Amino acid sequence: MNIIVCVKQVQDPEIPPSKFKIDPETKQVIPPAGVPPVISVYDERALEAACRLKDKYKAKIVAITIGTDKASEVIRHAISMGADDGYLLCDPAFESKDSFKTAYILSKAIEKIGAFDLVLCGRQAADWGAGQVGSILGEMLTVPVVSFACDIDVVDTGLRVKRVVSDGYEILEVPMPCLITVSSEVGLPRLPSGMRIMLARKKPIPVWKATDINIEHSLLEKGHEHTEIIGLVVPERKSECEIIKGTPKEAAYEIAERLVSML
Amino acid sequence: MSLLNISYLGISGYVIFWGMFVIALFLFSRRIYFLYKVIRLGKGEDRFDRIGERIKYTLSTMFSQRCTLKSIKKGDLAGIGHALLFWGFSCFFISYIILIGFAEGFGMQFLRGGTFERAVFTVLDIAGLFVIFCILWAAVRRYLIKPDRLEMSFEAGFIMSMVLSLMVLYYAIESCRFALMGESSRWPPISMAIATYLLEKNVGQATLWGVFVWSWWLHYIFILVFMVYIPYSKHLHILVSPFNLMFKPMDRKVLIEPVSSDMSEEEMVKGLGISGIQDLKWKDILDVFACAKCGRCHINCPAQLSGKILSPREFIKGIKEHTLEVAPLLLGQNGDKQKEERGKTFIDGKVKEEEIWACTTCGLCQEVCPVEIEHVRKLIGLRQNLVLEKNTMPEGIQNMLRNMQMRGNPWAGAQSLRLKGDWINEAGMEPLKEGDGISTLLWVGCTGSLIDRNVKATISLAELLKRAGIKFGVLGEGEPCCGDPARRAGYDFQFQILAEENREILRSYNIKEIITSCPHCYNTLKNEYPLYGLDLKIIHYTELLCDLVKRDKLSFSKTTGSLLTYHDPCYLSRYNGIYQEPRTVIGRIPDVRYKEMERSCKETFCCGGGGAHMWIEEKRGTTRINHLRIEEVTKTGANAVITSCPYCLQMLEEGIESKGLKGVLEAKELSEVLLAAMEKT
Question: Where are any strands of DSSP class E within chain A?
């Protein structure tokens, strides 16, 4: 089975609020000094799902990411977790916050990698959280998409996927090739073993530019975005606490009433 | 009166004597050669450096019996018994060589008779009494009192009856001999007294002769049996422990074997860390043969005392049993069998995974061990195998290691509200800049810069140093983890990555001297970084403060009011011998009231946080180690327990809180207490 996992490097979600700064003019997040970027948590779980399939069946895992030179770190992380190969897609032209552009670049890279049985993505990125790329990429690759998976297993007809829904889960079967976005319910990602870390440190990571993956530059130019950022603000953090007085019974009724009125 | 000149059933006494000796010697040597080959199964390690120093240490320790006598100050008097037995039996051992070997066996009869013989027997007569006394004492202790540290075994009973029989036979031989010779003298006192008694009772010559002959041969056979039995039993320690003392780690207690990060893939496939005996060093195998199962480690181990599965004594015993089981197969010629045995590992065989994670690496087992067994590095080696190869570890460890890998420190995540550096302005400090000419660095450590409670202690320390006029800088956000938790958790590659990165960072700032606030960072930077090319002057802040008060650069004017006690962090006192310094500083507080805990200094008791245990949940249903320590604190009646380690501080505070002692007892970092004892400037 050939598995391709799309991963993204993001600002550490653990950045303390005091350090989180944005530039409203350029609508950019200013990376805080001294806090290194990390792999997006959902993508790490997608990798974990891929590694579990590899543990159980014969599989080759390729990880791809779009980013600056620094993003090769997430590819190394992927290899240390169990990926066999990885590519960094790095080109100034790739700079974009638009999910369609991102999906387009990924689809071109996947085309270059060749035949695949399964593409895995995180359900959303831990930074912008749009949750669009997976589905759009599936569309571009013309394969079925299952979102929010928490368990994937191989069956005769393809894959059996357990998918998280708001009030439980549902189980679907999907033929391969397909694209699945993975939810955090898949479980804790593995800690890379020492051997794999050392392997990943030594492994060369090929860098692909736009020309390497036959990208039509015109499609990446301004004006082709499907989304536009109108404004960027840091939400104001407020917390209010009200103590409801009365006997426990009275207070309970009161809370229940208020909760009902909020529905 | 040599019994060897007589023929027995037509066979010369000499033939019987030497025949038996050769058989015994063959059995003895065969076993010793086997054990030597087993030890050689271990990996190479140079323990032959400073050989003169090593021999001197071994002889002085062995003959002074310092090794066993050191525990008597804690009320364990068995050390006295061992020492008397050792000295007493040593006399007999020498006499066996001189009197039985040379005088009888080689017919060197000039050694018999006269003052020399008299003197020898006088010494033996008295030594024999001590030996008998000690054997009876040991029997009472072992079978009636049954102390926790000993386990019942056939071996011990057998050897004790053997030694007792040898003594009884000795008195029988000598008294009969003197009675037969009709001599009367005051020396040797006991044998002569018995001889006189026998003569008074008119015991017949034939009876005396019969008893003499039988006792003599029985005595000789027992000596040979004893000789052969030793290397087959736990009393092997008689032969091995002197070597174990000799090959001890010289400067540091715990020498963790790094897992080389330059390994090729083929080498990696062979295995990482310790999974079987072939992964042990030869000294580790020597260790298990030196163990006499005295159990001093067993009754002192914090894991054992708090109800965990680990007992250092049983751990060593497990490795020994496994070694003796597997070694004959490994030594065999059959290649397939060797491979088969490769898979037969300690883990979940003789040593349980749970045991491996129960160790806090406090090193008390090694401190109290009379024969210098190194428990900790074996446990860490096993952890290396679990983590690096088998990828199994407690969840807390996994999260800690992930944080370290992703964020360069063990704490980030939900547990830390601030990142490194946030508090630095508050403390009025400036992070180092290249070219600002400051070569002294205050290495704050992850805990001291990420956990709110410890940050307070760090700020106090910085203030103290400033008041003492020390010029220092901090790295602030640029300070990574030293890697100690990763190394103790067995994730050695991560440790090495951090060590190499830190070396470059410290070099780039041209640092010459590092003051550390955390004993774990101290130990790592001082003892483990030199291997990675970083050999700077590392001082712990307690050493620096001690120096400052001695030179009157720092003085205190206010008393604390409360009764103080000091909890020694293991990595400072036991690992690095720093326990006098903090006490000197505390002693400079005016009118200080101070009480020492029962376990202190080098034999301090763990807070429960070392060896990456800050990130391991203690097993449910067991006592918490920090609660045990708090109980010891309360015995002193102190109102404040001072420490100088961020982990200890957290553990002690947690203990105080869960035991409901808040308001009665508080835990303080030394720097906080000292700052409070200074006038505001």
Answer: 2-7, 9-10, 21-23, 28-30, 38-39, 60-66, 85-89, 118-122, 145-155, 158-165, 168-174, 178-182, 207-208
Q: Are B507 and B495 in contact (CB under 8 A)?
A: no
A21 phi/psi in degrees, rounded to 5: -125, 145
The number of residues making up chain B comes to 681
Query: By the CB < 8 Å criterion, does B476 face chain A?
Result: yes
When CB atoms are compared, the residue of B387, B406, B494 closest to A38 is B406
B452 has a chain A CB within 8 A of its CB: no
What residue type is assigned to position A195 of the chain? M
CA atoms within 13 A on the CB side of B82: 21
Which of B388, B416, B421 is opposite residue A194, by nearest beta carbon? B388
Question: How big is chain B by its Cα radius of gyration, in Å?
Answer: 30
What digits encode the pLDDT tens for the residues B464-489? 999 999 989 998 878 889 999 999 99
Distance CA B160, CA B139 (A): 8
Candidates A19, A20, A191, A197: best to mutate against B (most CBs of B within 10 A) is A191
DSSP, residue by residue, A32-79: PTT---EE-HHHHHHHHHHHHHHHHS--EEEEEEES-GGGHHHHHHHH
- Find the CB nearest A193 among B388, B407, B421: B388
In a domain, A91, yes or no: yes
Question: Which of A136, A144, A147, A84 shows the shortest CA–CA distance to A117?
Answer: A144
CA dist list (Å): B485 to A121, A170, B354: 33, 41, 18
- Within a domain: A147: yes
Range of the domain at A24: 2-220
CATH number reported for the structural domain that contains residue A8 in this entry: 3.40.50.620
Please give, rounded to a whole number of angstroms, the shortest distance from the CA of A136 to a CA of chain B: 29
- B100 near A CB under 8 A: no
3-state SS, residue A86 = strand
Chain A to chain B Cβ contacts (< 8 Å) = 71
Q: Cβ atoms within 10 A of the Cβ of B200, count?
A: 9
Q: How far is the first Cα of chain B from the last one, in angstroms, to the nearest whole number?
A: 91
Which residues lie across from A23 on neighbouring strands?
A: A28
Angle of CA points B551, B552, B558, to nearest 5° = 145
* Predicted TM-score (pTM) of this structure: 0.86
If one compares A18 and B668, the residue with the highest pLDDT of the two is B668
B417 touches chain A (CB under 8 A): yes
Residue A44 C-alpha, separation from nearest chain B C-alpha, in angstroms: 12
Identify the sign of the CA torsion B455, B457, B459, B462: negative
Residues of A with CB under 8 A from a CB of B: 12, 14-16, 18-19, 33-36, 38-39, 188-195, 197-199
Cβ–Cβ of B398/A188 closer than 8 Å?
yes
How far away is chain A from the Cα of B458, in angstroms, using its nearest Cα?
A: 20
pLDDT of residue B344: 63
In a domain, A199, yes or no: yes
Helix (H) or strand (E) holding B47, with range, is none
Cα dihedral sign, B402-B403-B404-B407: positive
In a domain, A159, yes or no: yes
- Give dist(CA A248, CA B270) in Å, integer: 65
Token digits of residue B468: 């003492």
Q: How many domains does chain A have?
A: 1
B159 CB-near residues (< 8 Å, 6+ apart): B226, B229, B233, B235
- Note whether ipTM > 0.85 here: no
Q: Do B493 and A34 touch (CB under 8 A)?
A: no
The runs of H, that is alpha helices, within B271-343 are 282-290, 296-300, 302-305, 312-331, 335-342
How confident is the model over B108-149, as pLDDT tens digits? Answer: 777 777 788 888 889 999 999 999 999 999 888 888 888 888
